[in-house]
Structure to design on (989 residues):
């Protein structure tokens, strides 16, 4: 299964699982988590060079001299990366810096060509925003976003297929990133995942990141610590680096919380360090301790001027923002009368929300029916095949065709499931399947009456029992008539007619 | 005698087809070859490419085509990247580095028709004031080969001084154009920071580095700089303001020019013979109708300490890319990654470069950043403000370019501080980003002395104009060491 959250399953996973305790609380410990999310910006070229950012090209085929850090080359800022960062900042109600500064983060690593990463340090482009997440009990919690800054990605070191050697692929070097740093306000692994998913939803709505976690376009570092319930002082934290799946983030944090509580309860001390999550073993392990940590010697990059943004620019970016997930969900509740939960699931991605709206609009007066089908049978079918909603397997118009036949009582809900399956496998319209299979619901009173009379004639004993007071046999007659009509009798009419006929 | 012509005259005679570029290139190449054992001004001599380019220039001139410098021989300081010709930066680290691209300065001068004869020696990564830190050996001063030519553009200055070239590119981070120009008795200009593109100019200290030229005369400098200067979209710190025609108006009268005599530069460290030359030069300007008054820049004494924080800090980061991984020197059979880094860099860099990398790493370290780097940046603002105040009152500031004339090779290598103090008068212009020149103004015990002229941002034309008018009155800039005359 892919981790791309275009699938409905990811959204459905957000359903609160009540009755589960938050991490640590049962033991009298409180968990404190802050996330640093790295989202690759969906620019066509790199943040400081004209090289392409496309993923998957032959190693080092998309690294120009600037990306390679050749002697004498200079960075030139990509305006599109700035615009995308501002879009994000505005979407989370943050302060957009009128002046932000690029700084050099100095350290040696083979896949870091210049020996420093160009990032932002003291003056980031975005500061002090907030993101709302839905907690396990359905309540909403506001998570502060300390800052979001622009920076360049490093290359990749490759070891596979190179025994005793390290290969370096610098295609990724210079890809624009926005690093989104939360306040340490997340209190459980589940909180962290909900927050990460919300950010994921947001960057995709904003069309600033493709959100592809397998390709590393969206990944996070988690700072995790624990403290005694009621304590104000933060515990010593460990930083879990580079986790690129929602599931791993949850598991890594759960493991780390348990590890830290174990240490503290047995009288030990948590060491401040960087740790890696090993998904195969399901554990985190130490990468380097603080003592070995780099002194990054940040200082303003003298090759780049401060980024200065004026009001007019910021307002123009604001004017071009799309409807954001929270606003869309609120509108779905108001406009379609959907429960908040449905609205949340359906707005988890822009594609899904657009799809739902197309269906709902095509079947007027049945928004809840549309929601049930999109979140139910359609979601299940898509997930089973690992397809995204926008893969085109079931165009909105085609699903709407099915729902229209439910709404006008041509078929029953039960028959509809059969029709849906046929539509899914054949790609045909609901009407053509209903016609070829003869599934049209029988609403002709005389036809239903005929069927009832035939059943009554064939089952005199049961009829006698019913008439002597055995009401439970009513269901038997419903079943028999349905069987005789291959399930096509309109259930409401059938009930009514049976009630009239059976007493005699 | 062709070598005694100024660059401007050569350009004019080439255009008039009185001269052939190939003949000119041959003549200079001969002088270069002959001088090499004595001066060591060149790291690479590119005779073959030069003759091909010269012949193409002749063909263009024959068709009535060509730019302002078509057929004129020049040289590039060996930190300007030149496609296909190695660019060493005077370092073992880049001993075999062949750049795949041209620096903007290189491509602009080529587009103007200039013919490159070779790459000029320099202090390693432009760090030095004597050209003694070059991995390719010191350059010698054509006036006295026991002496240094100054640095870091020592090869460029010596080559023009000995008339091995009519003009050469150079760079100035703390005086690396003006100090060697002064010590070799030639004209050098460091333009305003941002006037000349740094793209392809291998970085020492990015916020201070600025490309410029060394030539025999101010008119030559104006001509060459006009072709080099201008906005470059590849350099975010280059400034998008039009480049005036520096050559036009050079002859206009100087009447009324307000000159500020830089009080703090006439300190105890200034050699009396140098001071005499400077004061005589000022008398010439007075005769030309300029008004001279004393001006004080109170914070200028902080220039050297501030510079030796900012420049090493930037260098420590700029030189991190030389790690033995992608280009440059790589140690033999590294045991592991750390060994690769340590040995490649230990072997590839010389002592002065290492000293500055260590200083720079220290001043940027956690806990020291505020005390050193941040404070130095504040000092820089104070110095810039001093200049701004001064230029509200005067048009040009003048003073010595160096405290003394050229010194002996080896005399200052033991103590880096005495070496650093040789740049005491030049560093402030880099910290403030203002343009500055050195113009030959006499001799102290047989050695040339340089008059420094500093202007406000983008006042290159004003400096070149004043220097040209001075050179119409004097012949110091036409003096050539006897053995090269």
């Amino acid at each position: 299964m892919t981790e791309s959250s275009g699938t409905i399953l990811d959204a459905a996973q957000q359903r609160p699982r009540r009755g589960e305790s938050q991490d640590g609380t049962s033991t009298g410990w409180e968990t404190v988590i802050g996330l640093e999310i790295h989202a690759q910006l969906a620019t066509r070229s790199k943040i400081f060079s004209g090289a392409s950012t496309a993923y998957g090209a032959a190693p080092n085929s998309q690294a120009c001299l600037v990306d390679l850090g050749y002697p004498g080359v200079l960075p030139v800022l990509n305006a599109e990366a700035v615009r995308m960062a501002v879009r994000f900042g505005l979407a989370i109600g943050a302060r957009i810096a009128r002046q932000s500064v690029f700084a050099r983060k100095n350290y040696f690593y083979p896949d870091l060509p210049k020996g420093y990463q160009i990032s932002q340090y003291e003056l980031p482009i975005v500061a002090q925003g907030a993101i709302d997440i839905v907690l396990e009990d359905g309540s909403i919690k506001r998570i502060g976003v300390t800052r979001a800054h622009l920076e360049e990605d490093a290359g990749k070191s490759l070891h596979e297929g190179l025994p005793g050697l390290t290969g370096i692929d610098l295609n990724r070097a210079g890809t624009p990133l926005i690093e989104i740093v939360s306040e340490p306000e997340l209190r459980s692994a589940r909180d962290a995942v909900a927050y990460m998913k919300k950010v994921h939803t947001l960057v995709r709505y904003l069309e600033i990141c493709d959100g592809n976690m397998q390709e590393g376009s969206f990944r996070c570092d988690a700072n995790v610590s624990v403290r005694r319930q009621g304590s104000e002082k933060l515990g010593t934290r460990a930083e879990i680096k580079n986790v690129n799946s929602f599931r791993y983030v949850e598991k890594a944090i759960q493991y780390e919380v348990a590890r830290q509580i174990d240490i503290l309860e047995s009288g030990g001390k948590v060491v401040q360090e960087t740790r890696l999550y090993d998904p195969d073993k399901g554990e985190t392990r130490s990468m380097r301790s603080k003592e070995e940590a780099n002194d990054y010697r940040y200082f303003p990059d003298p090759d780049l001027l401060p980024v200065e943004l004026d009001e007019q620019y910021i307002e123009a970016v604001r004017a071009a923002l799309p409807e954001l997930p929270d606003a869309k969900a609120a509108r779905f509740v108001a406009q379609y009368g959907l429960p908040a939960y449905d609205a949340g699931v359906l707005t988890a991605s822009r594609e899904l929300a657009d799809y739902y709206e197309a269906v709902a609009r095509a079947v007027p007066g049945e928004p809840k029916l549309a929601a049930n089908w999109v979140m139910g049978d359609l979601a299940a079918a898509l997930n089973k095949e690992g397809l995204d909603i926008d893969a085109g397997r079931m165009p909105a118009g085609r699903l709407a065709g099915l729902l229209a036949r439910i709404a006008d009582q041509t078929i029953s809900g039960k028959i509809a499931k059969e029709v849906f399956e046929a539509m899914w496998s054949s790609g045909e319209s609901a009407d053509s399947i209903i016609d070829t299979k003869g599934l049209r619901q029988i609403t002709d009173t005389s036809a239903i009456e005929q069927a009832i009379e035939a059943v009554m004639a064939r089952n005199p004993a049961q009829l006698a029992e019913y008439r002597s007071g055995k009401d439970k046999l009513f269901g038997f007659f419903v079943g028999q008539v349905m069987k005789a009509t291959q399930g096509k009798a309109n259930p409401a009419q059938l009930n009514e007619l049976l009630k009239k006929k059976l007493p005699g | 005698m062709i070598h005694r012509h100024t660059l401007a005259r050569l350009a004019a005679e080439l255009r008039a087809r009185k001269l052939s570029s190939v003949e000119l290139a041959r003549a200079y190449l001969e002088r270069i070859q002959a001088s090499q054992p004595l001066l060591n001004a060149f790291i690479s001599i590119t005779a073959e490419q030069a003759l091909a380019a010269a012949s193409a220039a002749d063909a263009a001139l024959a068709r009535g085509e060509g730019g302002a410098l078509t057929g004129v021989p020049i040289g590039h300081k060996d930190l300007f990247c030149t496609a296909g010709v190695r660019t060493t930066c005077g370092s073992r680290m880049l001993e075999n580095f062949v750049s795949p691209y041209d620096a903007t300065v290189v491509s602009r001068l080529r587009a103007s028709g200039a013919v490159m004869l070779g790459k000029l020696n320099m202090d390693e990564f432009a760090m030095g004031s004597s050209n003694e830190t070059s991995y390719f050996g010191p350059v010698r001063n054509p006036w006295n080969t026991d002496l240094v030519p100054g640095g870091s553009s020592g090869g460029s200055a010596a080559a023009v001084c000995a008339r091995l070239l009519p003009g050469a590119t150079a760079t100035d981070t703390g005086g690396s154009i003006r100090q060697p120009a002064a010590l070799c008795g030639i004209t050098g200009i460091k333009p305003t920071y941002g006037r000349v593109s740094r793209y392809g100019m291998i970085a020492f200290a990015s916020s201070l580095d600025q490309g410029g030229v060394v030539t025999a005369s101010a008119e030559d400098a104006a001509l060459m700089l006009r072709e080099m200067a201008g906005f470059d979209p590849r350099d975010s710190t280059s400034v998008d303001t039009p480049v005036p025609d520096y050559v036009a108006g050079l002859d206009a009268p100087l009447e009324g020019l307000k000159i500020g005599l830089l009080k703090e530069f006439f300190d105890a460290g200034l050699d009396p013979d140098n001071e005499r030359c400077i004061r005589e030069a000022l008398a010439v300007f007075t005769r030309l109708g300029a008004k001279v008054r004393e001006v004080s820049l109170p914070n200028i004494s902080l220039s050297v300490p501030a510079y030796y924080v900012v420049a090493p800090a930037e260098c420590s980061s700029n030189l991190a890319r030389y790690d033995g991984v992608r280009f440059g020197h790589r140690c033999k059979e590294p045991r592991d990654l750390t060994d690769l880094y340590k040995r490649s860099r230990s072997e590839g860099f010389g002592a002065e470069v290492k000293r500055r990398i260590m200083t720079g790493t220290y001043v940027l370290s956690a806990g020291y950043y505020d005390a050193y780097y941040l404070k130095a940046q504040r000092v820089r603002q104070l110095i810039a403000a001093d200049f701004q105040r001064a230029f509200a009152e005067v048009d040009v500031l003048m003073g010595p370019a160096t405290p003394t004339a050229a010194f002996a090779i080896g005399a200052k290598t033991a103590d880096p501080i005495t070496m650093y103090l040789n740049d005491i008068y030049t560093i402030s212009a880099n910290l403030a980003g203002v343009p500055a020149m050195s113009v030959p103004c006499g001799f102290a015990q047989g050695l040339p002395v340089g008059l420094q002229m500093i202007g406000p941002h983008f006042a290159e034309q004003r400096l070149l104009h004043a220097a040209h008018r001075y050179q119409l009155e004097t012949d110091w800039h036409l003096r050539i060491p006897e053995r090269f005359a």
